[in-house]
Every structure is written in structure tokens, then in C-alpha cells.
User: Fold this.
Amino acid sequence: MTGDETDWRRHAEAARGFMPPDEGLALHEAAREAVGSHPGPLLEVGSYCGKSAIYLGAAAREAGRLVFAVDHHRGSEENQAGWEFHEPDLVDPEVGALDTLPTFRRTIHGAGLEGTVVAVVGDSPRIAAVWTTPLALVFIDGGHGREPAHRDYEGWAPRVGDGGLLVIHDVFPDPADGGRPPYEIYRRALDSGAFVETGAVGSLRVLRRVAPGW
Ligand code: SAH
Ligand code: MG
Assistant:
């Protein structure tokens, strides 16, 4: 293992967030595969404090590609006060709302990925609506409610280029393990016939575009 390689792994594992190391490494492997099969940039929906962006960014950097990291940085429903995944120290006291952007920037800076990971700060569906560049990989890990998850799927699945990858996080086939919307959009992708599954680690699912549509 090269020094560089150890370094990004260390940064990724130390970063704040909810992605276990085995799933992060699977995401990294998917990104490496994606840059080999499509010439476009990579994009993630839902960056939070930048943990998953390191796994993607390390692979993109090797290939000289960019990762667009889309997040409004105000948190999903489950990150708000009173919910399961609320972290009070991430609230901007002046605004009285969550702000994960400063932590995200420190994470990306620390991992040496400022030249690779480009923050796109705003509402995912509104950005998807004007996005035209075909993507080598789309990673969906934004809002996990029914409406946000389906809107992300409808906005971003069409942007996955030919042979590119669609990766979805927090897919729980058994409702006892977690919320359903990420599983629902995973099913939508497979049922569309446009994507086939090429890998699964934990709740991470890797799909490849094999036909047009979504
Ligand atoms: N991928 C991250 C975790 C993402 S948590 C990791 O593994 O480290 C989900 C993120 O989605 C939150 O940061 C939240 O702000 C963002 N999000 C939720 N709805 C969004 C929307 N409509 N537009 C942009 N970002 C959104
Ligand atoms: Mg997740």
C-alpha cells in the first residue's frame, strides 16, 4: 500500500458520518470501476460532513476526474433536532439551522481533495433539473424520506452515462432493518431494465447502466 492510499483511508475512517468502512471501500471500488467505463465526472447527492466524498474523491483523483458533491448542508429530516441522527454541534447558532458545510470543507481539505471534490451547495432536484453532463457515477445518499428519495432518483438516474454506475446507500430489503425509500428506488432502477446490479456490500448497492431510460 502506498503512503497516499493509507492516508485517504485514514482520513475517510476518521471523518464524521454514517458510512461503515466496508461500505466506504465498496464505494471507492465502484468509483474506480466507473472511471474505467465512462469518461464523465462523478457526483454524489448527500455529502453531510464529507466522509463518502473521500471514498469517491480518492478514486477520482487517481483518474484526474472531478466529484461534484451536492448538498444544501441543512441536513435531512432525520438530522434535525429531536430526530435520531441529530448532532447539535453542527447547528449554526447565528442562523439556528444545521450547517455541515464548514465541517465538509475541513474534511475535504484534510484529505487533500480540494482539487477533486467540488461542493455544489443547493437543493438536489433543482440542480438535477439543469444538469446536462453525463456522469460516470451517481451516488444517491440524500434525503431518505419517500418524496426526497424518489425525486433524487428521477432527477439523477437519467444523468448516469452509458455503462456508468448508479450507487444507492441505505438499501434495506427487510423493513425491520431500516426505512424503505432507498430500497424502493433501487427496485425502480432494476425494474426499469436500464440498470443491473453488479455489487452489494452492507446497505450499499452498485448498479450499472445497460440500456437507456430509468
Ligand atoms: N453521504 C454522506 C451522508 C449523507 S447524509 C456520508 O456517507 O458521509 C444526507 C445528506 O443529504 C444531508 O447532509 C442532507 O443535508 C442532504 N440532503 C437532504 N435532502 C437534500 C436535498 N433536497 N438537496 C440537497 N441535499 C440534501
Ligand atoms: Mg447513507
Summary: Residues 18, 141, 169-170 surround magnesium ion (ligand 2) (CB under 6 Å). The first helix runs from residue 3 to 14. The beta strands are 42-45, 67-71, 91-92, 97-98, 117-121, 135-140, 160-168, 195-201, 204-209. Helices lie at 3-14, 21-37, 51-63, 101-110, 124-128, 146-156, 181-191.
